[in-house]
Amino acid sequence: DAVQGAVVFHKVSFAYEEGRNTLKEISFKAKPGETIAIIGPTGAGKTSLIQLLSRFYDTSEGTITLDGRDIRTIRRESLRSHMAFVLQDSFLFEGTIRDNIRYGKLDATDSQVEEAAKLANAHSFIMRLSGGYDRVLIADGSGISQGQRQLIAIARAILKDPAILVLDEATSSIDTVSEIKIQEGLKRLMEGRTSFVIAHRLNTIREADRILVLKEGCLVEQGPHEELLGKQGLYSDLYHG
Ligand code: GTP
Ligand code: MG
């Protein structure tokens, strides 16, 4: 059963602690392949929202559906097999680079691993490392740069080939060359997948099919860039600084 990647939030509320809603009646739709940018001040609920998608937590009220199916009726493992997460601090384990990428699809061949790394723009830096794909990483990833860690995480996600992608853009500064490589890799990764991006880069936000503007747990505005600018509300204020 192939997953198309249509996601609908219907009046979703969520509370970490009873009586204090962190997310309040959030409703929006993502069609298969769309890019949804999520923005808003710190503590607004951006991370909480994407955690509901993978059933890391379940909603307190309202429903989330994937291709029309309530995600609470889908086993967590099964749900997560259709998703890849590229987070600010993507998890690498102690093992070779090859195995770290292969974690996206455990039965992948060496050539599939390398193909994914090429699409992610990771291949050239890996080939320049002593040991190449057999280079052993230590768990905290030291020995390679933060940008290189992200390229490995992107390769892993490309190999997994999920219908849904969740991306938390880095805020920390990465050198320009790595940044360009990462953006190119991410572009390939996002193609044809429903993507939820906690966005910090103006380009990502402007190019998204829809922007969700969160404030104190409420979805205060949603729409594409031009439309939101026209509303002259919170988005317009944030955009014009
Ligand atoms: P930034 O990542 O800082 O930009 O914020 P965010 O928009 O991702 O906010 P997040 O979803 O992490 O938090 C929303 C609210 O939930 C904040 O008031 C947090 O303090 C609170 N919160 C986040 N995680 C937890 C948790 O594990 N337990 C409890 N009790 N509250 C939490
Ligand atoms: Mg967050």
Helical content stands at 25-40%
The class by helix and strand makeup works out as: alpha/beta
Small-molecule binders here are: guanosine-5'-triphosphate, magnesium ion
Strand content: 15-25%
Identify low-pLDDT runs: none
What is the domain tally? 2
Q: How does this model look, in words?
A:
The chain is an alpha/beta fold and 241 residues long. The protein has 2 domains: 1-82 and 162-178 and 194-241, Rossmann fold; 90-161, P-loop containing nucleotide triphosphate hydrolases (Rossmann fold), CATH 3.40.50. The chain contains 10 helices and 12 strands. It has a 6-stranded mixed beta sheet with strand order 6-9-10-3-11-12, with helices on both faces. A 4-stranded antiparallel beta sheet has the order 2-1-4-5, with helices on one face. Strand 9, helix 7 (176-190) and strand 10 (194-198) form a beta-alpha-beta unit. Helix 4 (110-119) crosses helix 6 (146-160) and helix 6 (146-160) packs parallel to helix 7. The radius of gyration is 18 Å and the shape is globular. The N and C termini lie far apart (46 Å). The mean pLDDT is 93. It binds guanosine-5'-triphosphate (GTP) and magnesium ion (MG). The site of magnesium ion (MG) has 2 residues, from helix 1.
